[in-house]
Specification:
With 386 residues, this protein is an all-alpha fold. It is built from 15 helices and two strands. Strands 1-2 form a two-stranded antiparallel sheet. Helix 3 packs antiparallel against helix 5, helix 5 packs across helix 7 and helix 7 runs antiparallel to helix 9. It starts with 9 loop residues before the first helix and ends in a 6-residue tail after the last strand.
Amino acid sequence: MRTTSLILSRKNLALFLPLAGLSLILLVFTLVRFTKGLGAVTNLSDAFPWGLWVGFDVVCGVALAAGGFILTGIVYLFNSERYKPVLRPAILTAFLGYLLVCLGLMYDLGKPWNIWHPLVMWNPHSVMFEVAWCVMLYTTVLALEFGSIVAEAMNWKKLVMAFHAVAVPLVLAGVLLSTLHQSSLGSLFLIVPQKLHPLWYSSLLPLNFWLSAVAVGFATVILESYTTSKLMKRGLELELLIDLGRFLWLALVVYLTVRLQDMALRGALSHVLDGGLESTAFLIEMSLFASALILLTIRRTHASKLGLFFAALFALLGVVMNRLNVSIIGLVSDSGVKYFPSWGEIVITATLTAMGFTIFFILVRFLPIFPPDEGHPNHVPTAAKH
């Protein structure tokens, strides 16, 4: 069993300097937000109360962390041991993603100190109540899954054995909880049929959100594997990523087929060429998905590292654009006000995102997140030609 030293060298200590600088920036805006209120750092209003912090930090953040439940389900529930080399990075990404979602939500809540209320003040008829409970429970599941990695690093054998004993029911609970709240995020927007633009409003929003989360889960795993192989000078699991690219292609085809057929039945396709902000945003979104599908359909690009990287990147950006369209752009025109994120909103979101990346790369240096390159059946040297 591999052990990892947690003692920091000078070289490792330098990794904390960017994080310290980002934390300082975050601290300044945090003080302003919690001493002066939302109005001091945001462009939110009573007419448009949900902006970047909900649209990106929460709605996009939850989707981008979907790789955790996708990979754990494939490995443990479908018994596909082959994908274990990319499982732990997906768990770590999901865990950090949900922690940042919770942290970002604290900035957006008018009274964040009341965030514990859903624990004791039950309202089972509320979609928000379901989302709150599912996110809390799934974050706990991710903490336990990540805890098994820490236990292995510390060589706590009995704790590792305990985690292995409950792995399958834990994963099953995680898949169920993640499926519930990924779809429930779409359900949040079902209550505004007269406010959300027809290009995005649909009774199938819960299904669309879940299907797009599945797709972006595969995309995220491909991106993090490629990026870490470059930045950490490690091997790339190319054969595994080619397989995940096939899954990504299938997930995108299913998602777009369901969505476009629904739009055709609702008559929403007539708005595509309206020429306004909404139609432009929709065309950008569809262009990103189309670019991903084209790259994944062409055998030469699908089998190359760069081709997979850009296909996954376009798919991820397409999902991000979709979530921003649903939560912000599709609602702005009906609100009667113009909204664009303030510098405070942008800086806090950017800083939280950068902190997530920094913490990820710090943790992979000290924990057994990636398998050793030597002896790995799908190891491809990073120096190999694209």
